[in-house]
Specification:
The chain has one helix and four strands; from the N terminus they run βββαβ. It has 64 residues and is α+β, with helices and mostly antiparallel strands. It has one domain. A four-stranded mixed β-sheet has the order 3-2-1-4, covered by helices on one side. The protein is globular, with a radius of gyration of 11 Å.
């Protein structure tokens, strides 16, 4: 399991939570910063985040 994702500049150790709208992810960093990332494959990126224990804060079930 890798701690980095291709095209994403932050290792998983710096990530706390995320939410996604269409293909844009808003990610809360552990230092309180917020970043945005447009994922070419949102489903794959979301699975990578979840596999590493990063919390998806969206309340309803999204279909990817």
């Amino acid at each position: 399991m890798t701690d980095t994702y291709p095209g994403f500049d932050y290792p998983v150790q710096l990530l706390r939570k995320f939410i996604c709208a269409v293909d844009i992810f808003t990610v809360l960093l552990k230092d309180g910063g917020i970043i945005h990332h447009r994922a070419p494959d949102p489903g794959h990126f979301r699975k990578w985040l979840l596999k590493h224990g990063i919390e998806d804060i969206k309340l309803d079930d999204a279909i990817f």
